[in-house]
Amino acid sequence: MRMNQQQRLNRVLELISERGNVSIADVSETLAVSTATARRDLNTLADQRLVTRTHGGASALGSGYELPLQYKIARQADAKLAIARAVEALIDPGSTVGMNGGTTVTEVARALGRSERMRSIAGEPGVTIVTNALNIAFESSVRENIKIVVTGGVPRRQSYELIGPLVSASLRDFSLDVAVLGVDGLTAEFGATTLHEGEADASRHIAAVARRVVVAADQTKIGRSTFARIGSLETVDVLVTDAPLPARVAAQFDKASVDVVVAPPVR
């Protein structure tokens, strides 16, 4: 099926994220489009300051290149939906839930908003979400069964997450039942990691005021470590993912007392 421009731009960004750079010929061959179309797409992304245009192609903006949130949404979509449903099932009605940003956690917030178990009773919300993610706060604010509390902080354009010292100041007097965290990597050696140090710090503070920490991560994040550490594997209580872990990794997670929940596939 022929891709529209937005789908092509998504795919080009994924290629650059994976490889660091691409040529016009790479884009043309991979997407089965003309070199003129490939050139226009690279120029469009460069105009949006998402890539650096080079002679004959384009490259990532830096070694820690991160896809903007709006371009991540379609990736691993079924896995994210399955994980979100499994996380929702772990949360008791009436709970206070801390959330950082990212597409998987956004799907968890949506699952809570749709949940029949989380209905408002006698005017009380079915669940309270405390988040530093502006997109989650915006979407969830229209749900009658959800009470939204937004931390302070300065927004990051890449992820819509608030970061900085105001995040910890906002959370200082809170006590959360559970923290649901999205990550960019999770390993036994380095624990939960993300690409940006400010987001890692904010996630760490959300986890610190929660009685239970749930990491929601698809299989592409397991066994991968990225730049900024959120916390060791021992700080994680539950991992919800979309596929069984390899035996060696499963043994490491078991040793760290991490309960692993494999989400049933979406049907």
Automatic annotation (TrEMBL):
Keyword Transmembrane (UniProt): no
Superkingdom as given in the UniProt entry: Bacteria
HTH deoR-type domain span: 5-60
Entry-linked InterPro entries: Carb_Metab_HTH_regulators, DeoR-like_C, DeoR_HTH, NagB/RpiA_transferase-like, Tscrpt_reg_HTH_DeoR_CS, WH-like_DNA-bd_sf, WH_DNA-bd_sf
GO molecular function: DNA binding
Coiled-coil parts of chain: none
Alphabetized UniProt keyword annotations: DNA-binding, Transcription, Transcription regulation
A Pfam family this chain is assigned to: DeoRC
The protein, known as: DeoR/GlpR family DNA-binding transcription regulator
Source organism (scientific name): Microbacterium marinilacus
